[in-house]
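Allow me, if you will, to draw on your knowledge of protein folds for a short while. I have a record of one protein: its chain in single-letter code and its fold written as discrete structure tokens. I should value your view on which stretches of the chain appear to form regular backbone elements. Thank you for your consideration; the sequence and its tokens are set out here:
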Amino acid sequence: MRALAEFVMKGRLQAVAVAGLGVGTLIFAWVGVAAAVLVLLRKGVTEGAYVVFWALLPAIAVATIGADVGPLTMLLGASVTALVLRSTQQWASALSTAAAVGLFSALLLTQFANGYLVSLLELVQPMLQSMRASAPGALPEITTGDVAALIGVSTVLWSTLAVMLARWWQSLLYNPGGFRLEMWQLRLSPTITIGLVAVMLLLSKVGGDYRFWAVMCVMPIVIAGLALVHGVVGRLGLGRAWIIVFYVALLILQPLWVALILAAIVDSWIDIRRRLPVRPTP
């Protein structure tokens, strides 16, 4: 990964090649987006916009010809998120921006691309019918609003991961250990937390086509919760084994997700990590 980051930073041609080819292959779209975002984070808007522009061409082609808007929304979402991160140096602001871009993308799709959503829904209908036949009543009727929500959630997730990958590359090349410290210190402010929870509750109350849209607002809180766990483990010097155990438990125990979200919300007010002693890793 370091070698790829070094190659991207050698010049415009290399950055455009990695970004364009990555976005065009679909499978490695998030790597291509991360390459464009790395230039944006390191060299600023002028150089970054040049790479993003050329990466947009295959993204638009995929959306037009291949009928997949994922790479396009990911690239745009990651670019806006990276700009906010570069200007504020605050992951909390960047994560809330990613959620806003996801919501905006879903809203645009429902308003101007309903035919595209219908085509996607028709594509998965045979699978949905098979699932309903095997487990009657277990799966609700899926609407185009649900499909838009899924695309929005995907946009938030993959654009955030792309920016994180780019930030990690930047840390490897220019600030060793910086990304780890940023993640350990990541914490939402009370204002951002209140805003996310308020929008989440509003969308939950609206229901109907918007019943799953609240997930986009939950995602920054979940990421903040994961950062809290990493920060606590690092501050107490507990070692990586505790992180592995936590993620295994997260996969097995569903209530742990609720506890994680609540911990992140509480942390936005009382800063749990600041109250803990600093211990070296054994």
